[in-house]
Amino acid sequence: MARTLHDLLAAFARHGGTPDGGVRRLAASAEDGAARDLLAAEIRRRGLGLAVDPIGNMFAMAGLVPSVREAVIVGSHLDSQPTGGRYDGTYGVLAGLLAVEAVAARAAAAPHAARRNLVLANWTNEEGARFQPSLTGSSVYAGTLPGPAAGDLVDGEGVRLAAALDAIGYRGEAPPSFEPARYVELHVEQGSRLEAGGIDIGVVTGAWAARKTSLVFHGEPSHTGPMPMERRRDALRAAARAIDLHYREIETSGTGAHASAARITVFPNSPNVTPSRVQVWFEFRHEDEAIACTLGDRFLAGAKSAVEPLGVGIEIAADERRGAAALDPHGAALALATARDLGFSAVSMKTVAGHDALALQRRVPSSLMFVPSRGGLSHNAAEFTDEAALDKGLAVLVELLWRMVTEAR
Ligand SMILES: [Zn+2]
Q1: What is the CATH topology of the domain spanning 209-321?
Q2: Which CATH number fits domain 2-208+324-406: 3.40.309.10, 1.10.10.10, 3.40.630.10, 3.40.50.2000?
Q3: Which residues, 6+ apart, have CB-to-CB distance to 185 below 8 Å?
Q4: Which of 14, 41, 159, 229 keeps 20 to 30 A from 99, CA to CA?
Q5: Residue pLDDT, tens place only, 10-66
């Protein structure tokens, strides 16, 4: 099983594979379509039923107890960032597939032990790289994002998510018929705590809060040459000033918050025109939601007054607040016990990054486990977790799913 995992990871890395060894597999792109086709083939090869819902979430069902509608879902995502690695999301989907297979075999050998079914899920657009917001498919499934609104999300070229899913053949019919009992996700840490501590498994108990604010800086186009400096209303210069302010405020706040400014769009983006419209995404993350929000408020006020002297106005294009979420305590306790029973070292921890499990927790008790990431590196072609560490995660996943489908409640 372990060898199969590494072979599968290598096979999936070819879809959207980049020359530097990374993966660029944006949601609902042709590369994503090819990876989905490969997953569908692997699902069918294992005799599992495949269903696709209208937002493109894929479900593979193992009917351990055909008379029961209740199912434990295991999954993650196949889409990647433009500079993605080969483990982020894909590891969770492939380990999930092999775990479903292993648990189904165990259930067949132990009649009447399983009390609920098992489902593998691949959630659409977890990354939010091509379509915003992120966690799209899992949020639709959780009922916190209306399906039609998700289908109407547009990418940078104006392509609707529903149309992109149609183009790759993954806009499905209806939600599958099972009733979710629990959700479990296995993922690479994308941070360095496990590696630094020499720990095998991280069991996530909750997530940091995040505030993501997209600002549009409105200036005026003019010739970059003759236009007198004092009359220019340069939106990019204003954005640069705001970005610098953003980082300085985070540093001086002493809160330990994480922050970034990214995804800059410049219009008209000609070397000879002062930029008239610039959009930047700012984010603030902290374990405490109130701190993340306060930092955002303080930054917004500061940015407005900082760019005013440049004749540039600020419009808030998006202001998304993600609360500090708690995952299911029973699932976390079960995951910790399972890892330790298998002889692995395990700790509970919080996640800074968003994950489908956090979106799904709104509908179904959800659990999230991490394996170490070398150097904490992620959203990078050099993202790496060694085979032994990946195998340990898979072993814990199999045992945890077995306990979840067989436990009395
Ligand atoms: Zn991921």
Answers
A1: Alpha-Beta Plaits (3.30.70)
A2: 3.40.630.10
A3: 74, 75, 76, 92, 355, 356, 357, 366, 367, 368, 369
A4: 14
A5: 999 999 999 999 999 999 999 999 999 999 999 999 999 999 999 999 999 999 998
